[in-house]
Amino acid sequence: MAWISLLFAGLLEIVWAFFMKQSDGFTKIGPSLITGVAMLGSIVLLGYAMRGLPLGTAYTVWTGIGAVGAFAAGVIFLGESTSPLRLAAAGLIVAGLVLMKISSTE
To answer: Which residues form a coiled coil (predicted)?
Structure first.
């Protein structure tokens, strides 16, 4: 259950990062509210996941999901640029997440 909570915490991190960008510096109320709710949900789920996972594993996976997911959302929905180096960097983060999961005893 900890890994499922961690996955959803990471997905909510993508949501809040995306809507923070859409909030235009918190000047738009709708995206700002979504940002706040998603942040709270993400932190609560991360805390729950940490009950069963080591700190380093949980935090690394949470930030990795958020980083790669926010990068992908920016490219897909906001038309942000890609380059071979940016794609390689995202791939290395994903590789690190896979290694972290494989090395975890939980």
So the answer is: none
